[in-house]
Amino acid sequence: MAWRGVFAIGVLTVITAWLGFQGMLGFYIHPRYNVFTLVMAAIGVVLIAISLVVPHTGHSHAGHRHARGHSLMEWLSLTLVAVVVLIALILPPTTLSSYTAENRSFGTVATSPAADAIDIDSTTSGFENLTVRDWASLLIQTQDPTFFRGKPFSALGTMTESGDPDVFLLTRFVVTCCAVDAQPVSVPVYFPGWQDEFALDSWVTVEGGFQVLPEVDVPGNLVVVSSGIVAEEVPREPYLF
After folding, report:
1. Of 9, 61, 110, 188, which residue is least crowded by CB atoms under 10 Å?
2. 33 and 239 Cβ atoms separated by less than 8 Å
3. Tell me, what DSSP letter sits at residue 164?
4. pLDDT average, residue stretch 57-77
5. What is the mean pLDDT of the chain?
């Protein structure tokens, strides 16, 4: 039983190293913590090796009797460790889903930490390279349709529900430290029948432009009307930072 902690740490250390080798630590943590996490995993491997080499002292008979009195709790603890390890081994690495976006969203256009970082002007230059986070920031700053007129929209994100069957939300998660603190940012896209062509949580690139559609229930009735939607693979860094 004394080895259950060492076993759990060992498996999770190997999983962490594997995620780093596969370039998928970004599914869980901010990239700036990748090196620190991998260094700590390496230290974990060294400590495990030391624990295997260093001999352990035996327990007295009284200690054994005491341990038998706690055998049930130890087995429950071991079971819990085994379940956690199995989940880590069986479940494939994946990004946060629309369920998380729905539960963490503060509105149709989620609050963006970078709302003040986008410089509003009347030109169209540079708008082709904006992310969902940038567009969401602009929508927070203004709902004036004349500002968005003629500005090309092109962004990558996942498809989440908006509450309007003809509109989906193009969504990305903004991460400060790790996936636990991720917050969704979204832009509404008008595309009737999108559910028939794409699955929820699909990664897509949307191109088009903003228009005011009175029939849709979003702030300012301002939505992206797509000129093309292309299915994409999950990006190497699915979150925005």
Report:
1. 61
2. no
3. S
4. 57
5. 78
